[in-house]
Design a protein that fits this description.
The chain is of the alpha/beta class. It is built from 10 helices and 11 strands.
């Protein structure tokens, strides 16, 4: 099966490896570039836990003054790996799903211990901090990176996709979907995509791309891509 992954390379490497091991062909077509936001006013006082929903949050964070024994909650395997490489030896992964991450925090972190710090992108698919506040947690959200659209597709990638029609394309955010729509128009890829299955996280994302008659639209959770590929005919 030919699968197109659209997240930035750092977020795609583990999945690319796993898919290739089981003999899938993977094309990397990034739809957004990640850019750090300088934030000098992060307050770690009374912070007893830290939450990362992307490895990029760690990449753009100055971890020098953060205790490395802090409870560190990571959305998926790649984020956990990045956290441990940065010295957080109490890092734990929720397997790639934000809802599961919330459940993990509720199950293992006593809200009486103190404040949680959520380091995130400017754009998120789910407001994890608000969900935890509803459950009685004290949490501060700090934005330390953002994303911008990729406006060009490398010619060799474009040629390969046109010659070898993808079976599946995975889209992870509404912003990525908007940019994919623009690139499909720019590079005349409508006929290619009508032979492709769209895998995305929500109806909100798929609605951006409903101008295309996809073979099938499949909703999945990050970290469960391999399982949901079984739904592709």
């Amino acid at each position: 099966m030919h699968i197109v992954l659209t997240r930035p390379i750092e977020d795609s490497l583990i999945l690319m490896r796993n898919l290739k091991i089981i003999n899938h062909v993977v094309t990397h077509l990034p739809l957004i570039n990640i850019k750090g936001i300088l934030n000098k006013n992060i307050n770690f006082d009374n912070c007893k836990g830290i939450i990362f929903t992307s490895a990029n949050a760690i990449k753009f964070l100055n971890t020098k003054n953060i205790p490395k024994n802090i409870h560190c909650y990571c959305v998926g395997e790649a984020t956990e790996k990045k956290a441990k490489e940065s010295g957080f030896y109490n890092a734990i992964s929720a397997g790639g799903n934000v809802d599961t991450l919330i459940e993990l925090i509720v199950r293992t972190f006593d809200k009486k211990l103190g404040k949680l710090l959520y380091i995130s992108s400017e754009f998120v698919s789910k407001e994890l901090d608000l969900e935890l506040i509803k459950k009685g947690y004290s949490i501060n959200r700090v934005i330390n990176y953002t994303s911008e659209p990729v406006n060009q597709v490398e010619q060799n990638t474009l040629d390969y996709i046109k010659k070898n029609k993808p079976d599946v394309i995975c889209v992870y955010s509404e912003k990525s979907a908007i940019n994919l729509k623009d690139l499909i128009g720019k590079y005349s890829l409508v006929d290619v995509m009508t032979q492709t299955n769209l895998m995305c996280l929500s109806k909100k994302i798929s609605s951006v791309l409903e101008f295309i008659k996809w073979k099938k639209i499949i909703f999945f959770n990050p970290g469960e891509e391999e399982f949901f590929l079984n739904k592709v005919n």
